[in-house]
Amino acid sequence: MKIIYCGDIVARPGREAVLNNIRKLQDDYKYDVLILNTDNAAHGFGTTPGICRDFLENGATALVTGDHVWNQREIIPFLDECKVIVRPLNMPENLPGKGYREIELANGKKILVIEVVGRLFMEAVDCPVQCIDKVLKNYTLGKNVDAIFVDIHAEATAEKIAFGHYLDGRVSAVIGSHTHVPTSDIMIFPNGTAYQTDAGMCGDYSGVIGFEKEAPIERLCRRYTGNRLVPCKGKGTLCGTFIETDDKTGLATHIEMIKI
């Protein structure tokens, strides 16, 4: 299976970078699955049903979110209505939406998409390890599912790496998001799980993680929150990850960075 994951899509530059390059991604990689992180797609904070539908109508297979999932109120009912959008698994179970989705592709293959958020330097959430173990009890790579993709939306590099090693051999890929800067540590762990600490963002890199630099610099210098963060308005860059898995085992055979 050929899987493309696009990192945090930040505001209009990020949305345009993805939508304008989906055809190129298909031509270049012949992907089976396109997973998009929409956590910052709506003016930098959360996403909306309209944005999600636009992505899905243009070729996205699945959408993941993150810690900003609740920022746009209109997305809340959509989390239950749409069967291919994933909110963080390790948030309370009674919240709208699901933390994992089993998606059947046109060719009959199945992929399980899971998202967790980290615990270090983030708002309080449940243990991601315990939550994902409950889900994975019901799935075995190469038997009842062809691929398992995990997005870990977290601040701390060490937490992401440890989580990747913990899942090595049990899932096809563990790819990090949230910090908006692509890391160069793409690898396949010893037991066959593809890994990258952060896929980077799809957005305008001229500012600070997709936002105009003035407010972040002011916060840095004054040490208190001043002006609101405003998304950059320049041309966006698409950053993501391409993973290829073995059809029999579901484990990774190839991983590479994407930058357009």
Describe this structure in words.
The chain contains seven helices and twelve strands. The protein is α/β, with parallel strands linked by helices. It has a six-stranded mixed β-sheet, with helices on one face. The model has no long low-confidence stretch (mean pLDDT 96).
Summary of the model, kept short:
The protein is α/β, with parallel strands linked by helices and 260 residues long.
Task: Name the descriptors.
260 residues, 6-stranded mixed sheet, 23% strand, alpha/beta, single chain
Which helices and strands occur, and which strands form pairs?
Layout lengths: L1 E5 L4 H9 L2 H8 L3 E5 L11 H9 L4 E3 L10 H7 L3 E2 L13 E5 L5 E8 L10 H9 L10 E7 L3 H10 L6 E5 L9 E2 L5 E3 L17 H9 L16 E7 L6 E8 L1
* Overall morphology: globular
H/I helix tally: 7
Total DSSP E strands: 12
- As laid out across the biggest beta sheet, the strand order is 4-3-2-1-11-12
Report low-confidence residues grouped into runs of 5 or more. none
Rg calculated over all Cα atoms: 17 Å
**Element string (H = helix, E = strand):** EHHEHEHEEEHEHEEEHEE
N-to-C span: 22 Å
Helix share of residues? 10-25%
Mean pLDDT: 96
How much of the polypeptide forms β-strand, as a percent range? 15-25%
Largest sheet report: 6 strands, mixed
Question: In terms of structural class, how would the helical and strand content be classed?
Answer: alpha/beta
